[in-house]
Amino acid sequence: MIIGIPTEVKNKENRVAATPAGVKTLTSRGHRILLQSGAGLGSGFADAAYVEAGASLIDSADEVWGQADMIMKVKEPVESEYGRLRPGLILFTYLHLAAVPALARTLLEKGVTAIAYETVQEGKRLPLLEPMSEIAGRMSSIVGAYHLSTPQGGKGILLGGVPGVLPGRVLILGGGTAGVNACRMAQGLGADVTILEIDHEKMRMLDLNLQSTVHTLFSNEYNLMEALPRVDLLIGAVLIPGSRAPKLINREMLQLMRPGSVFVDIAIDQGGCAETSRPTTHDQPTFFEEEVLHYCVTNMPGAYARTATQALANSTLPFALQIADLGWEEACRRNAALARGLNTHDGKLKHDEVAASLPELTQT
Length: 364
Prior knowledge:
This protein has 13 helices and 15 strands. The protein is an alpha/beta fold and 364 residues long. It has 2 domains: 173 residues, Rossmann fold (3-Layer(aba) Sandwich); 169 residues, NAD(P)-binding Rossmann-like Domain (Rossmann fold), CATH 3.40.50. The strands form 2 sheets. An 8-stranded mixed sheet has the order 3-2-1-4-5-6-14-15, with helices on both faces. A 7-stranded mixed sheet has the order 9-8-7-10-11-13-12, sandwiched between helices. The chain is globular. The chain starts with a strand and ends in a 7-residue tail after the last helix.
């Protein structure tokens, strides 16, 4: 199979879909890799390393897309790339279609077979989303702590406090992979942390595995509204695979928070979990609504490109090999987890939750 790896074009997206080690594995199995020149530089991988691993360097993005049987990316195609989509192309990347109906419509119109990293599912696990959720979760506490500083518009709270001064309070919505990693990092900074969760078994697990400075609270509107006036940093880490994120925070709730509080919405890739959330970029990451500073960057792990690329490539390579070795149809027949990743094919939405989030595109 001919596999194309283009340079990412989303704002400040320095990740790349494969490392030289992954390219070596693919080429050793007889597959041809077309790498756009410079695609790995943002993650610290030189063109020469890819050439040594067996890749062919291509200067033109159009040529990479045009010659490949399968395109491997990190982020969803942006509007400037829509013209490169074509019938029969296999696209293997993060898509988050519930939040990007224009892309979903284009994939259907172009007849693209699109397999989304974030909906590949083994039981309750999302193995291709987990590594980025881990990074985004840990990052959320770091950027939240930074933006709480007075020069960034925050209320001037140091999360860890100092002797004689109480630590800052962090409230995390969701106890999944992103939420737990946000918790661990906030806990490491010395903050007082509370996780809101609806799963009783998950709360028991958190209680057993996290230190006594972390509290769990059943997630409902009453408890959330009781907690918000005391929160310095709010982190949204909720996820329904394939679906738009539930809007847990409305504008009235946000008004309960004190001016200069910070809200980091990790769920922004799936539309965000607050009424006031809107996508931002690494160039302009924040905005204020109701005097609360919002951080809603849609590709948070791209800020730590080297780590994120290595973590992502480690997870995606086994699935890419199956697709390349067997073809996407046979690979999906043999691997139910990969089959769950199929979002579009032959002009139809193939994932139930994605389709339910995009009723205007659902074909009967």
